Amino acid sequence: MIKFRLLKFTFLLLSIFFLNACDDGDIIVSNFNFDEETQLDLCGDSDTKLLYTIDSETNEAVSFQFSNIEFDGTFDGLEAPDSINIPLGGNNKVTYRLLNGSANANDYFCQEVPPALPSVRDEFVSTSGGYAILQISVIDQDDNDGIPAEQEDINGDGNLFNDDSDGDGIPNFIDVDDDNDNVLTIVEIATNNDPESFADNDGDGIFDHLDTDDDNDGVLTINEDLYDPENDSESSLGAFDDQNADGLPNYLNPDITIFNEVNERRVNEIDRTFRTQVIIKDVSLEQVNGNQTITLETLRLGFYELSSSNEIIPLD
Question: What is the band of 195 on the pLDDT scale with cuts at 50, 70, 90?
Fold first, then answer.
């Protein structure tokens, strides 16, 4: 058995191994071009997941199969979770294949019945020992409230995460309701006269989307909503109740001071792009139908990226 150890933090193995012990005298070519910039895809069910890719130039296929019912490439809340460590062995394995032709990665890996072609020229599968690290982060996020993120840096220090006008635990730049009054920021910034400027209905110098009492009548905006939690759905939160039918919602009409206790808040849903970096540590790949073993300290398999809507619930 011939062992090859590559002690690098980035993974690029370009070697030709001649195996004298092979009966047919084949030259085995292992050309692994996978690193942290390799884009992976994900498929699988609730029990078994598969992260995979195929290099279209070299016809190399690599996959990481693992069991983790919670992993979907996303997370709730503001803080990224700790890295997920998955020991190799059993159902958790890395597979490298050299194919004899081109293949579509999704068709090749994610079908109930794998295609017969292309066939596998050479294959290596991980043994027990070693582990995989899944590092999940957010690389882009937006609350789509009509205000550019840089304008929600209230204190101007360049750190968007320490600007939380309503103190609900969600920074303004990813808070759909910056004053926590159940009227969406994108609604409160608009005016009939000048859609390019932020509205200040009561002229108190506080923009409506940051003002908890938009008409300055002493009743908080949230309490001028006649929403009844026992009879209405969450979608009615922040409804524009107009008690005297004059075309002006209660929360913008200083002459209407009806008070209604409302303790529920809107669910904060934003658009986010998640990235999971996949790193394999201390892995040994054994040749199927052969006697070679490739041993690696670090294999940066690539990344999986996913864009989705994500709910962040405000703190009480």
Answer: low
